[in-house]
Structure formats: structure tokens, C-alpha cells
Write a structure and sequence with these properties.
alpha+beta, 6 helices, Beta-Lactamase, globular, 5 strands
């Protein structure tokens, strides 16, 4: 299970890249919290309604931003009871979130790569990803390529 999400300063979803396992997990959480009914969920999830993601992640993103602004001590990850780990980082007012069942270090490394790729692709204007489907597609392909290369060649883990 792996999901990469980018939220802006208003907690609106800018970007999502995920696998089917993550989408099924989000759909299950939405049903459990009464945000949607089981009849509205398809068996093979192609996408999740962005409003569901905003409703599910908004409390987490808001508390992360409050901890950062008010106390200067934001948390970097959360591990849930079902061994799902959520890693968070902030760049240019946007919160980058990675959700998966991997170790925290792996998710943080992936977030660092996503932030680096975002910097290279759009610079400090992360909101461009919301409007440009081409840049979203390029970012998704770059992340997918990096994930594939990390599994096949150990030299990509060094990142020297």
C-alpha cells in the first residue's frame, strides 16, 4: 500500500499518486466514518473522490500545521494500529504526505525524493500541479521510475 498526497495551505488536495490497495483502504475508512455508503464504492477503485481525501486527512494536516506554526515542532510521522505509517513534510506552505505500510525511514526518503522532484519540476509554485495535468503526469512518471529503480538497483538508495 502506498499513497503520496500533496495538500496546500488551505488543506485542499493538489496531487495524488496511489496504488489500488491505498484506494481500497481510503474507501474502507470513508465507509467506517460514514462519509460514503458501500453502494457508492466500486469493486475496482480507479480513483477516490478528492473530497473524501480532504475530509479524511484535514484534521491531520491542520494539527500538523498548528504544531508547526504555534509550537515550531511538527511531527514527522504517525504509526496507526493497523501498521499503516503516515509520513509528513512541509515545503513552500504545502504538506507532503506519504501513507504506506513500509518503515518510517523509507516513507521519509520517498517524501524527500518527491519534494526534490517537485522542486525541479515546478520550483516554489507547487500549486501549478493542481492546474497542469501534464506536470502531474510527469511527476507521477518520475516517482514511478524512482520506485522501480530503487527496487532493482541498490545504487539509487545511496543518493550521492
Amino acid at each position: 500500500m502506498l499513497g503520496i498526497l500533496i495538500f496546500d495551505h488551505l488543506n485542499d488536495l493538489i496531487y495524488i499518486k496511489s496504488d489500488h490497495s491505498f484506494l481500497r483502504h481510503v474507501q474502507g475508512m470513508a465507509i467506517a466514518q460514514g462519509l460514503t455508503s458501500p453502494s457508492e464504492i466500486s469493486n475496482v477503485p480507479a480513483a477516490v473522490e478528492p473530497n473524501l481525501l480532504v475530509q479524511l486527512f484535514s484534521p491531520l494536516i491542520t494539527s500538523h500545521q498548528v504544531m508547526d506554526v504555534q509550537f515550531g515542532n511538527p511531527y514527522s510521522s504517525i504509526t496507526c494500529h493497523d501498521n499503516t505509517t503516515i509520513a509528513l513534510q512541509k515545503y513552500e506552505g504545502c504538506v507532503f504526505v506519504c501513507v504506506g505500510r513500509q518503515e518510517e525511514e523509507e516513507l521519509q526518503r520517498l517524501l524527500n525524493i518527491v519534494i526534490r522532484l517537485t522542486k525541479l519540476l515546478v520550483g516554489p509554485c507547487v500549486n501549478v500541479l493542481r492546474e497542469s495535468s501534464e506536470r502531474r503526469r510527469v511527476l507521477g512518471r518520475l516517482v514511478k521510475a524512482w520506485l522501480r529503480l530503487v527496487q532493482q538497483q541498490q545504487c539509487y538508495l545511496v543518493e550521492a
